[in-house]
Amino acid sequence: RPGPALAGDIGDRVILATWPNYHDAANFDLFRDQTGAAVQVNVFGSNEEMLAKLQAGGSGWDLFVPTNYTITTYVEADLIEPLDLSKLPNYDAAAFEARFAEAGTVGGKLYAVPKNWGTTGMAWDSGKAKAPFTSWKEFFDVTRTDFSGRTIVHDYQLTTIGSALKYFGYSFNSVDPAELAEAEKLLIEVKPHLFAITSDYQPPMRNGDAWLTMCWTGEGKQLNRDLPEIQFALGKEGGEIWSDYYAIPKNAPHRDAAYALLNFLIDPQVNAREALAHGFPVADARVNAQLPAELLNDPILHPAAELLNALEFGAAATLTDPNRAELMARFKSA
Amino acid sequence: MAISQRMARAILLAPAGLWYAVLLVLPLIVVLVYSFGERGAAGGYAPAFTLAQYANLGARWTALQNTLLLAPAGTLAALLIAYPLAYFLALRVTARWRTTLLVLVIVPFWTSILIRSYAWIFLLGGRGIPQLLSDLGLGDLRLINTPFAVLVGIVYGYLPLMVFPIYVSLEKLDRRLLEAAGDLGAPPWRSFVQITLPLSLPGVATGSMLVFILLMGEYLIPQMLGGGKVFFVGNALVDLFLQSRNWAFGSALAVTLVAIMLVTVTLYMRFLKRIGAARDDVGLM
Amino acid sequence: MRLYAFVVYAFLYLPIGIIALFSFSAGRNASQMQGFSTQWYGRALSNPFVLDALQTSALIALSSAVLASIVGTLAALALSGMKGRLRTLFDALIYIAVMIPGIVIGIATLIALVTVFDAVNPWLEGATGWRLSMGAGSLIAAHGLFTMSLVIILVRARIEGMDRALLEASADLGAGPLATFRQVTLPLLAPAILAGFLLSFTFSFDDFIIAFFVAGSETTLPIYIFSSIRRGVTPEINAIGTMVMAVSLLMLVIAQITLRRGEKPNPQ
Amino acid sequence: MTEATGHHTVGASESIAEFVNTSKRFGAVLAADSLNLRIRKGEFLSFLGPSGCGKTTALRMLAGFETPTEGTILIDGRELASEPAYRRPVNMVFQHYALFPHMTVAENVAYGLRQRRPKLPRAEIAGRVAKALDTVRLGDFGPRRIWQMSGGQQQRVALARAIVNEPKILLLDEPMAALDAKLRAEMQMELLSLQRSLGITFILVTHDQQEALSMSDRICIMGKGRIMQIGTPRELYDTPANRYVADFVGRANILPARVRATTGGRAEVELADGLRVEVTAPFVAPAGAAVEVAIRPEALRLALAPEPGVPAIAARVTHMTFYGEHIEYLLAHPVLGALQVMLPRQAERALPGADVGVMLHVLWDAGAGLILGQD
Amino acid sequence: MTEATGHHTVGASESIAEFVNTSKRFGAVLAADSLNLRIRKGEFLSFLGPSGCGKTTALRMLAGFETPTEGTILIDGRELASEPAYRRPVNMVFQHYALFPHMTVAENVAYGLRQRRPKLPRAEIAGRVAKALDTVRLGDFGPRRIWQMSGGQQQRVALARAIVNEPKILLLDEPMAALDAKLRAEMQMELLSLQRSLGITFILVTHDQQEALSMSDRICIMGKGRIMQIGTPRELYDTPANRYVADFVGRANILPARVRATTGGRAEVELADGLRVEVTAPFVAPAGAAVEVAIRPEALRLALAPEPGVPAIAARVTHMTFYGEHIEYLLAHPVLGALQVMLPRQAERALPGADVGVMLHVLWDAGAGLILGQD
Ligand SMILES: Nc1ncnc2c1ncn2[C@@H]1O[C@H](COP(=O)(O)OP(=O)(O)OP(=O)(O)O)[C@@H](O)[C@H]1O
Ligand SMILES: Nc1ncnc2c1ncn2[C@@H]1O[C@H](COP(=O)(O)OP(=O)(O)OP(=O)(O)O)[C@@H](O)[C@H]1O
Ligand SMILES: [Mg+2]
Ligand SMILES: [Mg+2]
C-alpha cells in the first residue's frame, strides 16, 4: 500500500530531529524520490535537550521523536500541535498496543504517533561477574566493591536517578524530596567508583574498560549479538519501559512535508524496513506481522511478562521537576 | 575634509559596531538580566529579581574548582611541552626543514578536535596505552575518564596554540645576542636563562593567555575524556541550559565565569606589563 | 633535542594515525581495527547527512569568514590611527569579544536572540510573512563576533606596521586616495586579511560549542560528529576526519605553492 | 660631476618653483620659518643642514605632503599650497625608497604612468618604463621582485620610478643615506650625470656636506627652520655668511679678533695673541670692532721656521692624523687654543722631523681667512 | 688620533695573538684562506677589505664563534682554536651592538662581570660598571633602557660592556657602520683615545679606508679570504704591494708601462704614449718588462704650460669636482685614457681659465708613482 500520491506542493525539504541510528537512510531516499522533499536529519541524545531546543524556540524542526513521558509537557507548553488525521491515511489507531500508544493522546486529542518502544536495564560482562545481575541493588552494590571503576551510568537523569531510586525500592518516577535525597546520597557515594557518566557506553563495554552499564534494549541486543559474554537483564525491582513517538512542533516551517514524511514513515512496509535497520521493537501490529519471528521472540527485546509488568513508564513530572534536574547536575559536578 | 574623514570612519565602523552591539553587548546584558531571574516552571527563564542564583553558586563549586585548577595546570603543562619544541624549531632546525616542521605542528588542527579527542578515548582506554604498559609489565593503569586524561587532551588540543607564539618570539631573537652573551663569558645554559628565556617571554605570555582563555570555557575535552566525571564550568553551563534548563542559574554561572576571566586576564596582563614581557606581540591576543 | 621533538611529533600524530588507520577498518566499531576495507569512505561519501553537514559547515565557515574579513578589515582601517573615546570603546569590545569563552557566547547569543525574535516575530510576520529564527544566519553572526575581532587585531597590527611612505609615494606618483587604497593599501594588507580569513574559516569550521547552541536546525559537521559520537561511532567518522584533513593538507600545499611563487619568504 | 655645467643654468632668473614666506608649524615646533627661495629651472639645488633643521619639511611642502601654515608655494607660477600631492608635477625619491614590495621592478616604475587619465596605451607605458630602466642601467631587471634587488639597485628603481613621469622637479630626500661609502660615491656620480642629461630640476636633501659640495649648482644651508645662506658651493665655501655656515660647510678655525682697518675688501685684524693678519672682509667692519675670523685648515701653512713678511703663529703639534692624500695636524697655542692645519701629502716633505710635541710655525698668508657676519 | 703614538707599540715582536695557517671553509666558500698574522700587544690593528672578503670570519674565529677548518689560533701563546667563546680572554663590539634589550644600560655593562666564577662582590661590579660608563661618558645613563639611547650612545654602551671585562683583545666588527658621518667621526676619535688610554689591543674590522688609515697602527688588507698586505697606513699608502692594494687604499691612476732601467730604488719606465718617467721601484724589474705603474691623483700636478725637465702629459679636462679643500680634475688622454688629478684648493689659483674642455699639462715629478707587483 503505497502512500497516497502527494501531488500537492510540500516543498523541497523537511527537517527531522531524532535519535542516532534510528532510521534507514534508504527510506529517506525513497521519500525524496516520491515527493521531491529531501529529509534533513538532526540527531539528539536526550529528551531534555529536545525540550531545551524547542523551548529556546527557532529549532526549525518539522518532525521530532519525543519519548512518552515528555508529551504532556510539550502540550502544556504549547510546543506541539494536535495531528490532523486526514493527512495521515497510514495511521491506524487499532494497530497499536495501547500502552505504547496512549501517551500520544492528551486531552482527547492525538498529538503523537508511536515509533518504537523498549526497556532500560543493565548489561554486564559475565566473564568478570561472580553471578548474573538481577537487580538495581546488586548493580550499585557491586559497583562499590568488585566492579569499582568499571561501571557506567547514563548521562540522563530519568534512568540514572530512576535506577538509584529503585535501589531503595522507591518509584522510578519519584519526585519526593526525601526519596530523591536518598538517591542523591547513593549516587554521590557511588560516583568515585564509576567508570563514566555517559550514554555512549558501547565502546568501553566492547573494549573491556567497563564491565557493567545501564543499557537500552536495542543496544543490549547489539552488544550481546556481537559479544555473547555481555549479558542483559532488567532489574527485578522494576525500572523503565519507554515508547518513542513522532510529533510535529508548533510553527513547523514545512508542515505539509512533515505530515507527508510522518505518513510515509508509519507505512507498515516502510516501518518494517526501519525496524530491520535499527532493531528496536515496534508497537504496530501491522509491522510486526512482517518481521522475522526470531526478532519477535528475542528475550532481550521482548522480555518475560512478569519482568515487563514491574517496569514503569517515565512520568511527565520527572522531566520538568527542578529538583531532579538539579540533583543530576549536582551529581555530575560533584 | 575633516568632517568627511569622520564620516568615512563612521561608515567603516558601523558594521562592526552593529555586530558588537547585537551579538556582544545585547547578549551580555540579557545574560546579566537573566542571572537575577528564576527558573521557569517547565524550565527556561521566569522574570524576577533575586540574588538566589548567585547564592546557589556553591552547588557548582567543584566545577569551578576543577576549572580553576585544571586550566592553569593545562596551560602550564602545554607551556612546558611546547617551549622546547618551539626552541628546537626556531633555533636548532635548518631553514629548509623549518617550514615543513612548523606546518606539521598545525596540521593536526585541521582534523576536528572531536575526532582527535575520540582517538584519545581509544588511546587512553583499556585497549590502548594501558594495555601496552601492562604488556610491558608496568602494572594495571587506568587513564581514561580521569583528570589526567583531560589534561592530556588539553595539552594535545592546544599545543600548537602554545608553540606558535613562542616560536615567533624565539625566531625573532637576534642570535648575535647569544654570541654576545657567550663573548662576555656566559656558558650556553646561562645565556639561555639570562637572554633567551627573558626575550621569549612575550611569546610565552601570548601563548599562555590564549590557551588559558580557551581552557576556562572548555567543554568538549572534559566531556569526552573525563567520562562525565571531570566537570568544568563549561560542562556545568551546558548542563544547565540543555539538561536542567535552568537559564537563570546558568546565566549567573556564565556571568561569574566572565567576571573571573576579566579579572584574571586583566591582572595577568598587568603583571606582564610590569615584568616587561608585554612589549609587542602580547597585544595580539 | 631532536629526540624530544620526535616524541612531541609522535604525540601530535599518534591520534591522527589512529584515526586514519581505523578509517580502513572493515568492522563497524570506530575504535577497533578489524580487517581492511575502504568501505567507510564510500559510505561517508554517499551519506547525504554527512555531505549535508559538510556543506553546511563549509558554507557557514565561508560566509562568516568572508563577512568577518570584510567587516573586520573596514573596522581596522577606521580604527588605525584613531584616538579618543570611540577607540577606547572599540578596544574594550574587541578585548571582551576575544576573551569571552565560546560557550558563554553561544549561550548568551541564544537567549538574547530568542528573546529578541520572540518580541519581533509577531510584528514581523504580520508585516512581511517572514519570521526570524535561529539557523545559519545566527551561527554566522555568532562566529563572526570572535573571528571579526581576530581580523581587526591582525589587520590593525599590519596597518600600524605599514610604511606610511608607501602611501605618500603612491600619492606622489599621481594616485588619488581611492586609487592608492586599491593599488597599495589593500595588496599590502592582503596577507593579514588572508591570515585572518583562514583563521576565521578554521575556527568556524571546527567550532562545536557555539554552533551547539546557536545553529537552530542546521547541522554542522562538528554537531553531526558529536551526536554520532554520543551513541556509538562507526569508522565512517574516521573516514570523514581523514578526508577533511587530507583535503586541508592539500589546500595548504597548494596555498604554499601559490604564495611562494614570487612572494618574499615571509619574514615572520 | 662637471662643475662647469653649473654655469649653463642659463637665464638664471627663470624660476620653476618658489617658496614665498613659507612657514610650517608642528605644535610648538616651527619646522620651517618663513622660507623665501626661488628655485631655478634645470638647476641642481641641495638643502644642507643638520638633523631636525627642517630640510625634509621644506621638501614635503613642495611635494604636497604638508600644507604650509603660513605663506605659499608656487610651482611653475601657479599657487599650489593646497593642491594635493597627487596632482602636482613633482616626483620624489624617498629616503628608504618606499618601493611597493608587492610589485615587480617594472610595475613599480609603471605605477605613475598607470595613474594618468586618460589612460596611456599599454605599449607606450611599457616603452617608457623600459627606457627609464635603461637610463638607470637596470634594463634587464624589470620582472624582478623588489626584495631581490640590492640597496643600490633599489635606489635606482626609485629613481626610475620618479623620472619616468618626467616631473618638472625631482625631489630627493637623502636618497643615499642608506648606502655604504663606495656605493654612495658611485650613485652620486650617476645621479649627477642623469640630472645633466635629463635637464630636470633636482632638489636634494642631505646632511652630508661633501655630497652637497660636489653635486650641487646651488646649496641652501638650513638651520633651525631658517635658510642661513644660499649660494654656489664655492660661494659658501669661500665666503660663508656667518659662523653657522662656516662651521657646517668644510672645517674652519674660528678665532676672535679685533678690526684695525678695512680697505677694499681686505681688513687688517689683530688676533688675541697680538698677531696682525690680513683677511678678506665681505663687508666693512668698523675699526676696533670685535669680530670672528674664520680660516680653513688647508689655507694655513706649516713651516719649521717663520717666513719673512708672513704672519706666523708658533704652536706645538698635539695630534697628527694620516688620511692618505693629506695629513691633519692639530696644534695647541697657549692663547689661541687648538688650531687645525691640513697639509697636502707632498708638503710633508718640507717638514722633516715634524712630529707630536714639536714646535711649528703656522703661516697665515695675506688675504686667507675672512671676517664672519652675525648668524 | 695621535699618529705618533703608533710608534710607542714598543717591543713590536711581543705578540698577543697569532693566526697560524688558519683557514675557514663554509661549504664551497673559502672564507679565510691560510691566514698568517701576528697581532702585537697593545696595537690598533684594522682588517680592511671589500664586502665578503672574510674580515668578519677572521674576527669571529678569534672570538671563538667559528672554529677554523685548518690551522690554528694562538692567544697569549695558548692554542685556542677549539676553546669556546665564553672562555676566551677577548671581547667583541658587535656591528649592531647586540645589546640586551631587556636589560638596562648598567645591567648590560655588568653582564660580563656577573658571569665570573667565583662571583665578584656586588660592590665591585657596581664600581667597575660605573667606571666603564664614565670612560665612555655615559656616567648618568646606567638606569636607562637600551631603546631610550640614541645610536651613538648605544655604541658607547657596547664599548663599555666590552671594556669593563678588561679583555686582552677588543674586537670591533664595523662598530661605526650604522652611524652617520658626523657621529662616526666623533666616535672614531673617542675610540682611538680610549685605546691609547687603556692600552688594550684593538682589532677593528672595517671597509672604510679613511677609517682604517686614520686610526690604525697597522692595517691588514684582505681580499677573497686572503691577506693581501700588512703594514702601517703609510706603508700601504706609499708602497702598495700590488694593484689590489693600490686600488683599494686611496685612489690611484694605474697605467701600463715598460721598464727601461732600474737603479737604486728608482726605475725609468716608458708609458704607452712614449713618455718616459722616473718612478719608485720597490723591487728590481728587468729592463723591457711590461709592468703596471700606479700614481696617486695628488702626486700629479697640473699646469697651463709644461715645466722644463718635468715629464708632462697633455690632456683635456672632462670633469671638475669641487670638494671644498681640494678639487678633483678628470682628464682624457687619447692613449693613456682617463687621468685623475687632485689639486689642493690653493693650487687652483695657479690655473686661471682651467675649465672643462681646456687642454692642461699633467706634470709627473721624478720618483712619484711606483711599479706594482703582481697580486
Ligand atoms: N609630523 C611632524 N609632527 C611634529 N613635528 C614634526 C613633524 N615632522 C617634523 N617635525 C619636527 O620638525 C622639525 C624639522 O623636521 P624635519 O624632518 O624637516 O628635519 P630634517 O632637517 O629633515 O632632519 P633629518 O636630517 O633628521 O631628516 C623637527 O624638529 C621635527 O621634530
Ligand atoms: N655562516 C656562513 N655560512 C656560509 N657562508 C658564510 C658564512 N659566513 C660567511 N660566509 C661567507 O664567507 C665569505 C666571507 O664572509 P665574511 O662575513 O667574513 O665577509 P666580510 O669581509 O665580513 O664582509 P662584510 O664586509 O660584508 O661584512 C662570504 O662569501 C660569505 O658569504
Ligand atoms: Mg629629513
Ligand atoms: Mg662582516
Automatic annotation (TrEMBL), chain B:
Lineage top rank: taxon: Bacteria
Transmembrane segments: 12-36, 69-89, 101-123, 143-168, 199-221, 247-269
Presence of the UniProt keyword Nucleotidyltransferase in the record: no
Record Pfam families: BPD_transp_1
GO biological process, one term: transmembrane transport
Gene3D superfamilies per UniProt: MetI-like
GO cellular component: plasma membrane
UniProt xrefs under InterPro entries: MetI-like (IPR000515), MetI-like_sf (IPR035906)
This protein's record includes keyword Chaperone: no
Classification via CDD domains: TM_PBP2
Domain ABC transmembrane type-1: 64-268
Matching PANTHER family: INNER MEMBRANE ABC TRANSPORTER PERMEASE PROTEIN YDCU-RELATED, INNER MEMBRANE ABC TRANSPORTER PERMEASE PROTEIN YDCU-RELATED-RELATED
Name of the protein: Polyamine ABC transporter, permease protein PotB-3
Lineage: Bacteria, Pseudomonadati, Pseudomonadota, Alphaproteobacteria, Rhodobacterales
Gene symbol of the encoding locus: potB3
Automatic annotation (TrEMBL), chain C:
SUPFAM superfamilies xref list: MetI-like
ABC transmembrane type-1 domain location: 54-255
BP GO annotations: transmembrane transport
Highest taxon in the source lineage: Bacteria
UniProt topology in membrane: Multi-pass membrane protein
Subcellular location: Cell membrane
Pfam family, one: BPD_transp_1
GO cellular component: plasma membrane
Record keywords: Cell membrane, Membrane, Transmembrane, Transmembrane helix, Transport
TM regions (residue ranges): 7-26, 58-80, 92-114, 134-155, 184-203, 209-227, 239-259
Entry similarity comment: Belongs to the binding-protein-dependent transport system permease family. CysTW subfamily.
Protein name from the UniProt record: Polyamine ABC transporter, permease protein PotC-2
Organism expressing this protein natively: Rhodobacter capsulatus (strain ATCC BAA-309 / NBRC 16581 / SB1003)
Gene: potC2
UniProtKB/TrEMBL annotation, chains D, E:
Domain ABC transporter positions: 17-249
The keyword ATP-binding is annotated on this UniProt entry: yes
EC number annotated for this UniProt entry: 7.6.2.11
Gene3D superfamilies assigned to the protein according to its UniProt record, in alphabetical order: 2.40.50.100, P-loop containing nucleotide triphosphate hydrolases
Broad enzyme group: translocase
Cited function: Part of the ABC transporter complex PotABCD involved in spermidine/putrescine import. Responsible for energy coupling to the transport system.
Name this polypeptide is given: Spermidine/putrescine import ATP-binding protein PotA
Originating organism: Rhodobacter capsulatus (strain ATCC BAA-309 / NBRC 16581 / SB1003)
